[in-house]
Design goal:
CATH architecture: Alpha-Beta Complex
CATH class: Alpha Beta
Mean pLDDT: 92
Helix content: 10-25%
Number of domains: 1
CATH superfamily: Nucleoside Triphosphate Pyrophosphohydrolase
Distance between the termini: 31 Å
Radius of gyration: 15 Å
Strand content: 25-35%
Shape: globular
Amino acid sequence: MYPPDVPQYRPNAAAIILNQHKRVFLGERADFPGAWQIPQGGIRFRKQETPEQALWRELREELGLENPKERLILLAEHDSWLRYDFPEWLKSDKRIISQYKGQIQRYFLLSYIGTNEEITLEYKGEREFRSFRWVAPEEMAENMAAFKVEVVEQAMAFFKSRFPEAFLL
């Protein structure tokens, strides 16, 4: 359940969310306009938070859903941890925790059963995303930061191979 001991990588939970049309949720970061990504965030291991607990907390915070379990169905969890390195230009940005080389992530596949209007992108007056859109799975790479594409594609390939029914209309 916990990542291998790789202290230079920040432990993180990541969500691939499909809507009823089998399109994937991408949020545009509030702090980096034009940067689109799937919901993801740090796991608070010092507080004994599990990857799944971090997932639900992050979905509440990033999507603005008060109780995300009422609008999202957890379909699957990836069976291993995936990691990526931060590009050099990002490591020097003071908004990023500079002690990390990158992130090591546990991926989850979810189905969204709510409406777009229920996604407020705001939690306790804060916004991680400024906007969102739903894209076809094959369009994800062209919409995301290049340094994240490979791990997201690995996660998508895993979920498509083991849970193909989740991607069928």
